[in-house]
Amino acid sequence: MSVSGSNPRALPWALVTPALAWTCAFFVLPFIAMGFSSLTGHEGGGFTLANYSQFFTDPSYWRAMVNSLEVTAIVTVISILLAYPFAWILAEMVPERWQRLALMLAVLPFWTSYVVRSYSWLLVLAQNGVINRALTGIGLIGEPLQLANTRFATVTGFVHFFVMLLTLTIFANLKQLSPSYRKAAADLGAGPVRTFLHVVLPLTLPGIMVGAFLTFVLCIGDYITPQILGGNNELVMPQLVMLQIGRRGDFPLASALSIILMAVVTIAYLACARWLKIERA
Amino acid sequence: MRAAVRLAAWLYAIAVYGFIFLPVVVLVLFSLQATSFPIPPFTGPSLRWYQAVLSDARLTSALVNSLMVAVLSSLASVTLGFLSAWGFARFVLPGSALLRGLITLPLTVSYLIIGMGLLVLFNWAGVPKSLLAAGIGHVVINLPLCFAIIYSQMGDHQINIERAGRDLGAAEWKVLLLITVPVMAPAIFAGFFLSMTFSWDEFVISFLLTRFETTLPVEIWNLLRSGLNPKTNAVGSLVFAVSIVLVVFFELTLLRRKPA
């Protein structure tokens, strides 16, 4: 107490330094270490750009990035298209006093463990899983469909997660919208469809963009869902990174691939940020 | 026409609820399977797989490890986050915006890359893989979260209460402990709770940074190697139950606070 009294300038720094030191030691420093590592060879040795050039010249590595971007784009679009009407129904059609419960139910599976959630989809989609048994049971198909270990399975697992996430954000967005906008549109003679297209949708668009960006970031960096549901038929970037560490212990290449993945996310962020600003203007 | 649209909307909502609940229902249902495969037809109900989980020493010790890492890393995150939020909210510091940006920066980076970075650093520095290493990683991802939540809740209202305390002669540490902490309790609690759930569920950092002793998500991941197995269903259902209890507890305590 007397310490802070005698030197009032020391107190604020004493408060913020631990957090800053932690971030520097365990976030910034690892990053620098990863940067250095990515510029060395697998067997040690001096400076080399081989890890980066390997990514840009080896088509199978390129393929993983393309897969990542494709899966992420598909997931983001489908999740928004599914979640928006759902959030709208919850916000507009469900009676006020049931809304909290309806929303809580809609995101309840969110609280299952992430690994377990992907595994649960495996139970549903497996060769002898629920869907195939049901479809063969009613005689719709003769042979079980190959649903697991496909891109379809990866996308399904992701969409399940992000529909819940986006329902939350879009619902919050719709509730923040003042009802007077809609009343004004109705007074000016717009029907429900025109009101939605020209008033509600544009006003919720910034919120959708934030949700879409969140989906993009979480989806492109995820290892669990593609590994459990997509299997090894079609690799995405995080799987490629983990493969370098797991099978080959190639830290430098894994570092380079991580940095490339991060660069892509950063570019997406910059693109998204600019787009959002245009929306606000 | 109107009625048809309404009906379509309700059917749509039911379909989405069905999609959201399908995997969870299948998971829990087949955790009660009596035979060895969690696939139709349902042969239960039986609790044999729950028994198998509870008598599996690897799973139970992983559960204890997970709880320990979650509680300790969340305590560290919320302490560091609270102190720095207080420092930045109450005092004018040079380069404040930049430093605040630095603290929140890890929020924008995927867990995989944070884990990779720590793996490379620890590998280079000769730090062995351990629960401690994973816990350090969990503080990296949860500290920015706690900081952001607590910092955003520190308004002028709280400053005035603190000033009153100081005017009445309270020392700085008394202001902190007797005024700021109680006033900020909801935000601190929210930060701690969110950190707990994120740490409890975190997989990739623990996977990269632990070896022999590990956390529950990693141990569940190891179970997946044996393919579809009702034991995995049982442990998954148990984890789900724990999370639901936490969420309901959180909801109730928040709801109770509201009228006050």
What's the gist of this structure?
With 281 residues, chain A is mainly α. Chain A is built from 13 helices and two strands. In chain B, helix 2 packs across helix 12 (230-257).
Description:
The complex is a heterodimer of chains A (about 280) and B (about 260). Helices cover about 80% and strands about 0% of the residues of chain A. By secondary structure, chain A is mostly helical. Chain A has a single domain (about 60-280), classed as MetI-like (MetI-like fold). A two-stranded antiparallel sheet of chain A has the order 1-2. The radius of gyration of chain A is 24 Å and the shape is globular. The N and C termini of chain A lie far apart (about 50 Å). Chain B has twelve helices and no strands. Chain B has helices spanning about 1-30, 50-55, 55-90, 95-105, 110-125, 130-150, 155-165, 170-185, 185-200, 205-210, 215-225, 230-255.
Under the CATH scheme, which architecture of chain A would be assigned? Orthogonal Bundle
Q: Quickly name the level 1 CATH class of chain B.
A: Mainly Alpha
Helix vs. strand class of chain B: mainly alpha
**So, the CATH homologous superfamily of chain B?**
MetI-like
Low-confidence stretches of chain B: none
Q: How confident is the prediction overall: mean pLDDT of chain A?
A: 85
Task: Give me the number of helical elements of chain B.
Answer: 12
CATH topology (fold) name of chain A: MetI-like fold
Report the major sheet of chain B.
Answer: none
- Strand neighbour order, sheet with most strands of chain A: 1-2
The figure for the number of domains of chain B is 1
What is the 3D form of chain B?
globular
Estimated structural class of chain A? mainly alpha
Mean pLDDT of chain B: 86
Integer count of domains of chain A: 1
Strand runs of chain A, count: 2
> How many beta strands in the DSSP annotation of chain B?
0
β-strand percent of chain A reads under 5%
